[in-house]
Design goal:
Elements: H1 3-18, H2 22-29, H3 33-40, H4 48-57, H5 62-65, H6 80-92, H7 102-113, E1 121-122, H8 124-135, H9 143-150, E2 157-164, E3 174-179
Antiparallel strand pairs: 1-3, 2-3
């Protein structure tokens, strides 16, 4: 058995025991859902920091989680944030895959942006989080937001040239955008 398959099977076992879904693991480990799914499908890999973050979801160290003989922790021993997510998943049920066309997503982004005045500076993640909370979309990859900025919302928002570099955060830093043209709320939006 390969290390990836062994790790994925262990993760799947923990997820089943606690009723968690790939989106929950991604949320708690601050990773992308597609990365978690790729590992579970034996087609992807994760960086050591993400493997450790997944282990910490269950209150363990990486080497403990990676040891198939290590006993699975009790619910009571889990971190509070994990317990909260388990309770949320029990209440919400299995996530439903929602597929939105680029036009539908653009409309939802536009509705959020209509709450701001011209000149407002923001990060794509801020808009993505507002779209998620307002419309319950469950977006985890905010690249879709920046894609809409570059395509459908070109001339309404633009990059400022500033970046949001967070010390210790992996990956490419987010770029700030600015609302350069007002958006009026449509009468059909809810």
């Amino acid at each position: 058995m390969t290390v990836l398959k062994e790790y994925a099977d262990t993760l799947r076992w923990y997820m089943k025991k606690f009723g968690l879904e790939p989106i929950d693991i991604a949320y708690l480990a601050k990773s992308a859902k597609k990365n978690i799914i790729a590992v579970l499908n034996y087609t992807g890999s994760l960086e050591l920091e993400t493997l450790e973050a997944i282990s910490q979801i269950f209150g363990l160290k990486y080497y403990q989680f990676g040891n198939p003989d290590f006993p699975i922790p009790s619910f009571e021993s889990l971190p509070d944030k994990t317990k909260e997510r388990i309770a949320y998943r029990k209440k919400a049920g299995k996530p439903v895959l929602k597929v939105y066309t680029s036009l539908e997503l653009t409309e939802k982004i536009s509705e959020v942006l209509s709450e701001y005045k011209t000149g407002y500076v923001f990060l794509p993640s801020e808009i993505g989080n507002k779209v998620n909370s307002k419309f319950d979309l469950g977006l985890t990859d905010f690249k879709q937001i920046t894609d809409r900025f570059k395509k459908d919302l070109q001339g309404i928002v633009e990059k400022t040239g500033e970046i949001n570099k967070i010390e210790g955060k992996r990956g490419r830093p987010e770029e700030y955008y600015k609302l350069i043209k007002p958006i009026t709320k449509s009468k059909s939006s809810t």
